[in-house]
Amino acid sequence: MQCDFIPLEKMKPILSIIFILGFNMATIAQIDFDNPPWGKNCENLTTQSEINICSYEKFLIADSILHTYYDSIVSNLNYQYLNQLECSAVTTDEVQKEYLKQLKEQKDFVITSQKDFEKFRISTTKIVEYQYKGGTLQPMVVNVYAFDLTVNQIKILINLMEEIMN
Q1: Do residues 112 and 121 lie in contact, with contact meaning Cβ atoms separated by under 8 Å?
Q2: Which sign does the torsion angle of CA 52, 58, 61, 65 carry?
Q3: Is the pLDDT confidence value at 16 over 80?
Q4: What is the pTM of this model?
Q5: What is the residue-wise DSSP string for the chain?
Q6: Whole-number Å distance between alpha carbons of 78 and 24
Q7: What is the pLDDT of residues 58-102, one digit of tens each?
Q8: What span, in angstroms and rounded, lies between the C-alpha atoms of 109 and 145?
Q9: Burial of 59 (0-12, 13-18, 19+ CB in 10 A)
Q10: Among candidates 48, 36, 42, 74, which has minimal Cα distance to 150?
Q11: Could you tell me which residues come within 8 angstroms of residue 98 by beta carbon, excluding any fewer than 6 positions away?
Q12: How confident is the model at residue 29 (pLDDT cuts 50, 70, 90)?
């Protein structure tokens, strides 16, 4: 049984979620990897200090986009979960209840994945940080490495979103 009925008192928060999801999806779906939003010209700067700051700013932009992707996936799964939770309250359909359980687990896995990625990124950049310890290039190299990992994770999440949000 497909349940699409949502009581009026629950529509306001759900419409807010839909608006946020729509905004997030429109924003993140437009990333052009040939001309990305983090496309700063760090290589045209002249001092190492400027290059270090620029590389960190690039990383921060990519990291904020990555968090937007994770937030969008979690918001979408929350919306699906709340909709299915409402349905399960009016039905005894075991398939519906199993789907509800799967949505919750899927959301939990996405949250775990985000935490695991952040731990991975920190631990692997520490390897590079140690290699360049004490040098003026250290901040730039660490920022570039963290940036590359982040952009790769964004690409992975784009594929994941196509799988679970369509």
Answers
A1: no
A2: negative
A3: no
A4: 0.78
A5: -------HHHHHHHHHHHHHHHHHHHHHTT--TTS-TT---GGG--SHHHHHHHHHHHHHHHHHHHHHHHHHHHHHHHHHHHHHHHHHHS---HHHHHHHHHHHHHHHHHHHHHHHHHHHHHHHHHHHHHHTTTSTTHHHHHHHHHHHHHHHHHHHHHHHHHHH--
A6: 15
A7: 999 999 999 999 999 999 999 988 888 876 666 667 888 888 889
A8: 25
A9: buried
A10: 36
A11: none
A12: low
- Amino acid letter for position 141: V
Burial state string for 143-163 with b = 16 or more CB within 10 A and e = fewer than 16: bbbbbebbbebbeebeeebee
Q: Which of residues 90 and 156 earns the better pLDDT score?
A: 156
pLDDT, position 39:
84
- Written as six digits, the tokens of 139 are 């901040």
Give me 12's structure tokens: 């306001």
